[in-house]
Every structure is written in C-alpha cells, then in structure tokens.
Amino acid sequence: MAKGIFVTGTDTGVGKTVVTGGLAGVLRKNGFKAAAFKPVQSGGIEREGELLSEDAQFYRVATGLPYSIRELNPCCFKPPLSPNVAARVSGQVIDPLALAEAYYRLAAENDFVLVEGAGGLCVPLVDYHFTMADLARLLNTPLLVVARPGLGTINHTVLTVKYAQQSGIKVKGIIINGYREDQATMAERTNPEVIEGMTGIPILGIVPYLPEVSVESGRTGNLVEVIDEKVDWRVLI
Ligand SMILES: Nc1ncnc2c1ncn2[C@@H]1O[C@H](COP(=O)(O)OP(=O)(O)OP(=O)(O)O)[C@@H](O)[C@H]1O
Ligand SMILES: [Mg+2]
After folding, report:
1. pLDDT in tens, 86-120
2. CA 112–ligand 1 middle distance (angstroms)
3. pLDDT one-digit tens code per residue, 178-221
4. d(CA 130, CA 184)
5. What CA–CA distances, in Å, run from 155 to 8, 88, 97, 102, 149?
6. 217 CA closest ligand 1 atom index
7. Considering Cα of 46, then 52, then 57, then 60, what sign does the dihedral take?
8. CA of 215 to the centre of ligand 1 (A)
9. Which of 26, 49, 162, 212 has the fewest Cβ atoms surrounding its Cβ within 10 A?
10. Given this model, what pLDDT does residue 54 score?
11. How many Å apart are CA 8 and CA 133, to the nearest integer?
12. Where residue 48 falls among pLDDT bands split at 50, 70, 90?
C-alpha cells in the first residue's frame, strides 16, 4: 500500500498542480512508483464532448503516468466554484467514500500517491461540513503545504498549518512556489525563515518561477529537474 501525501495550498492558484506533478515526476525518475491524484476538480475544461481536469492532464505530461484522466480525477465539474456548490449546480453530490475508493485503487499499485486538494484546507466538498481537511483525515495522509512567496503568505501559511494541526493532520513540510530571485522584495527574502520559526515546520524548498511551465498548456519545461534539485523531497518518503 502506497504512502499518501496530501498537497494543499494556502489558496487556489498557488502552484499545487505544478508542485504535485513535479514531485511525482521526481519520485518516478528516482525509481519509485508514484501517482498524482486530483479527487475533485471544479472548473473542468470541455474537450471533445468530455469534461476534463487540467490538473490531471498536467500530471500525465509531467510524469508519463500510465493512468487515464478519470483514474487520476474521479470527480470533475464545469463551474469554477467550491466543490460543494459546483456539485449542487450540476445536480450531483460528492461522495467522499467514492473518492477514497479511487485513491485506494492507485495506492494499491504505487509506492506513493500525491493527492492534490482543490483550493485550501477549508474548502467544502459536501454541504457546509465535509472539507478538504476532512478528506485528508479520511485518507489518513500527512500534509504538504504549497505557499506563495510574497507579502501576506506568513498569515496564510501559518493559518493553514495551525488549522491542519488542530484538525489532527500531521504537517510534513512547506514549499514556497513561484519565487523570482531577481525581483525578490525584503518580504520574499525573509518569509521562509519567519514561517519556519512560527510553525516549526520545515520549508522543504523554494521553487523558482519557471516561465516555460504552464498547467493550462500542459508544458512542464525542466520542472522535474528543478524540483529534484531545489526541494528536499526525501523528507516526504
Ligand atoms: N513555479 C512556477 N513557475 C511558473 N508558473 C507557475 C509556477 N507555479 C505555478 N505556475 C502557474 O501558475 C498557475 C497556477 O498554478 P497551479 O495550477 O499549479 O495552481 P493550483 O494551486 O494547483 O491551482 P488550483 O487551486 O486551481 O488547483 C498556472 O498557470 C501555472 O502554470
Ligand atoms: Mg491545481
């Protein structure tokens, strides 16, 4: 049975997919069987009459995963809304146990499964009660937090870590994503050390802004090599 890692973000759009795809690619490059899994996607895109998860498609490009998009993303909605509302307006209800089953199918065949949440930890999946944090607990996976480099990230990252810990989820590490060395402000240079000091959780790496990477266009550039070099991924395994 695979080890799971739940990749959450301090917000939507912080780079969870880039980090998840990159890490899965690094693990596979280093000889591990690793899969990436997106239980619920909202804002799915329509291609040839089918609704697809861009995130799952990106994992396949980054890693050459031998799974269909459906196996990597069992639940996809078109409206770019929180999953509970996206499901409601699509006339559906998300079943956390079905998500867990899809996860365990991948877990049975791999050494590692990286699970990417949608948005952050408090994002609701069912009505007003079952959240991404509850899903991480259901799957019994420790957490990796992806955060922005800039001003405001201390508050968002510390809140995410504390909420996870209060919810009984172990936090393994934090990755800062999208750092631009040439434009880094004083905040960006000092944030990692402050976040580590306030949470006691290690910053496993700072991933630079990579202009050739695009989730939307399915372009990975040298993402896997950069994550291999810049992220202390061995802490996760
Ligand atoms: N290190 C990076 N360098 C360049 N572009 C990046 C980097 N990280 C993320 N991006 C871009 O920023 C956007 C958001 O990244 P990503 O899709 O990984 O975020 P996310 O947290 O997974 O979002 P969501 O909550 O929608 O799943 C994408 O267009 C992606 O290509
Ligand atoms: Mg994503």
Report:
1. 999 999 999 999 999 999 999 999 999 999 999 99
2. 22
3. 999 999 999 999 999 999 999 999 999 999 999 999 999 999 99
4. 38
5. 15, 31, 32, 34, 12
6. 31
7. negative
8. 6
9. 49
10. 97
11. 9
12. confident
Residue 197 in 3-state DSSP?
helix
Q: Which amino acid is at 80?
A: P
What is the rounded CA–CA span in Å between residue 211 and residue 13?
16
- Which residue segments constitute the domains of the chain, with CATH numbers given? 3-229 (3.40.50.300)
Residues with CB under 6 A from ligand 1: 9, 12-18, 55, 118-119, 177-178, 207, 209-210, 213-216
Active-site hit among 29, 38, 78, 162:
38
Whether pTM > 0.90 for this model: the answer is yes
Whether 29 is catalytic is: no
Ligand nearest to the CA of 37: 2
The two structure tokens encoding residue 185: 């402000």
Residues 1 and 16: beta-carbon distance below 8 Å: no
Q: Going by CA atoms, what residue is nearest to atom 10 of ligand 1?
A: 15
